Amino acid sequence: MSLQITPLDNVGIEVSGFDLNAPISSEIQAQLKELWYEHAIMVFRGQDISPENQIEFSRIFGPLEMHPLKATTSEEYPELFELENGGEKDKFFTAFYQGEQIVGRLDWHKDLHYTARPNHGAVLRAVVVAEEDGLTGFGDLAKAYDALDEDTKALLEKLEVAYSFSMQRRHMRYVNLEGYEPGPFSPRKPADVGFPDFADAVYPAVITHPVSGRKVLEVVEQFLDRVITPQQFGLSNDESIELLERLVAHGKKPEFTYFHKWQEGDMVLWDNWRAMHCTTGTRPGVKRVINRTTIEGDITLGRVLTTE
Ligand SMILES: O=C(O)CCC(=O)C(=O)O
Ligand SMILES: [Fe+2]
Question: Domain TauD/TfdA-like: where (predicted)?
Answer without folding.
Answer: 5-294
